[in-house]
Amino acid sequence: MLYTYEQGTGCIEALQFLLRIKNQDVAFFLPVHWQRFQRVLPLQNVPKSTDEEYVDRVAWRNIRDWAMAQLALYETERVEMPQVFFPFATDAKGQTLSEKMVEGKCLLGDGQ
Q1: Which of 8, 34, 72, 109 has the greatest CB tally within 10 Å of its CB?
Q2: Does 65 score more than 90 pLDDT?
Q3: Is residue 110 part of a domain?
Q4: Which residues constitute the domain of residue 77?
């Protein structure tokens, strides 16, 4: 596990880790995107939505809770580990699969 920090702010930017899948290490990158929380929290009438430190903690807690929920699914044998984290798998350049899909760089096709 590795926490990457945003330069200049000290905020956690992402959680990075490796999983061994079929004898191959696959890198994963789970971004925190605390700035998105800063835009959303006022819409939800959260009183401390202008406090960047508070917003960062809420955003990080959201990622942590989501990851823990995914691990609970794995621990109860409802899913395989790659199933839950696959959208966050990265290529050699550090781009996630979900980013590639959004950009249209990773099309699945018609299944033929």
Answers
A1: 34
A2: yes
A3: no
A4: 2-102
Q: Which amino acid is at 102?
A: V
Domains of the chain: total? 1
96: Cα within 13 Å, side-chain hemisphere? 16
**Which pLDDT belongs to residue 111?**
54
Could you give the CA distance from residue 53 to residue 84 in angstroms, rounded to a whole number? 29
Report the pLDDT value the prediction gives residue 5, as an integer from 0 to 100. Answer: 87
In a domain, residue 13? The reply is yes
Tell me if 107 is assigned to some domain.
Answer: no
What pTM does this model have? Answer: 0.76
A 10 A CB-CB count for 3 gives: 11
Alpha-carbon span 104 to 58, nearest angstrom: 31
pLDDT at res. 97 = 86
